[in-house]
Fold this sequence. Notes:
This protein is α/β, with parallel strands linked by helices.
Amino acid sequence: MATIMSQRLVRLSAPLAHLRATAVPARVFVSRYSTSTEEDIIKTQQIPAPGSGHVRVLQLNRPKARNAISTHLLDTLSKHVDAIAAEGGNGPTRALVIASNADAAFCAGADLKERANMSQAETEDFLLKLRSTFKNLASLEIPTISAISSLALGGGLELALCTHLRVFASSSVVGLPETRLAIIPGAGGTYRLPPIIGVNRARDMILTGRRVTGPEAYFIGLCDRLVEVLPEEEAQEGVARERVLRESIKLALDICEGGPIAIKMAMQAVDAHALGERAENTAYESVVETDDRYEALRAFVEKRKPAFRGR
């Protein structure tokens, strides 16, 4: 298995070597479009997407707490998700990237220090809000991507499971360690992980509570894009985080090169794959007579790039 994972990592990383050498650093690129301050618990950027709209980037920003999910962080994340959901998949937000502004962790899970001081009623309210926010995130009608460059444990991994795609660094470490704390995953881990990696592999991760590295995560299908970080680079400030963020933004922008309606319908068809041909045919009928489809045909004949408008 180690040989297979190594070969896959090399194949994935080869194109990225050129990207690393030529691309603008992620912190510079993203800061151009920042709409927040260093003190914000979630830093927000809006990066122009091809044609129209933007890619929204949310960076969790509790570095001293390894982005543990506090009440404040959860409330802020919920407001962002609700605002995007209100667009109905037809607004200016074309894709969402959730990342970390801290090197140490994507998200270390629930804030156990805060939880220790909660009453039973407060704990129940927090869990209801957490589950509702994660459900709403998973239901967004735009492509969503998690950028995981370091640690994602418990609720942190469950947060990443709510997005459509996940980009990992080779140095990332993820897991659902709840059984070792005498509980179980409580924010979607037991039902969102099995469809992604298979029931038996999900059992393995959840029952043992073991941690999974980036290469293994790619091998079992938990990670969709794997970004190489060399051992000597792991201790360098910002290297893994910026590299994964840049690849995640690139993935989002690549998706946005397609027609907005087509992307939305393709997502619906894939989500309804259990219905087979019926779901695909319904989605196809929604795109075949759009202005964007005719624009694509004209652009092909005229040998130019199409200018999609989401109509």
